[in-house]
Design goal:
The protein is mainly alpha-helical and 162 residues long. It has a domain of 104 residues. It is 87% helix and 0% strand. Helix 1 runs antiparallel to helix 2 and helix 2 packs antiparallel against helix 3. The radius of gyration is 33 Å and the shape is rod-shaped. The N and C termini lie far apart (102 Å).
Length: 162
């Protein structure tokens, strides 16, 4: 009789342990799924943020490039009224700056293509690459803007309306 009670007791304890183990296993699996989902949502949030930042940067850069093109055209009109020697010097300077502006425009277009490729395989490296590009591009735009501001107008004054 005692052995029967011991057997029943051990069997019922074993079943309780199996239930507890099964429940713990299900909880661990659910937690793992929750963590995967949270990680996926976090990556999507970062992707969305990076994409929005890129779009803002691209739009601002395109606006600056268009403004620079307009400013170069205005300066060309002013330079046309100057003497031949001065006109040649200033035209050469503007040609160089105009070429730099076109290069910036092309770099921006190229980076947009690369961004779209990087974005499909988005990772931390792509994010860092984008940040580095934006810093370099902004620096180059500032250099171009400063050079344009130093162009002398036909009256001899520095044109700093840009």
């Amino acid at each position: 009789m005692i052995s029967l009670l011991t057997t029943i007791s051990i069997t019922s304890c074993g079943e309780a342990s199996k239930k507890d183990f099964k429940s713990a296993k299900e909880n661990i699996e659910a937690t793992g799924e929750n963590l995967k989902q949270a990680g996926k949502e976090s990556r999507e949030e970062v992707r969305t943020n990076v994409k929005a930042t890129w779009e803002k940067f691209k739009n601002e850069s395109e606006t600056v490039i268009i403004d620079t093109e307009s400013h170069i055209k205005e300066l060309r009109d002013k330079i046309a009224k100057s003497g031949q020697k001065e006109r040649e010097r200033l035209t050469n300077e503007l040609d160089s700056l105009e070429m730099k502006n076109r290069e910036l425009k092309e770099r921006l277009a190229q980076r947009e293509l690369e961004f779209k490729e990087d974005f499909s395989d988005f990772n931390e490296t792509a994010k860092e690459k984008q940040h580095k590009f934006e810093e370099e591009f902004k620096r180059d735009m500032q250099i171009l803007k400063a050079a344009l501001m130093k162009i002398v107008t036909p009256t001899g004054a520095v044109d700093d309306e840009f």
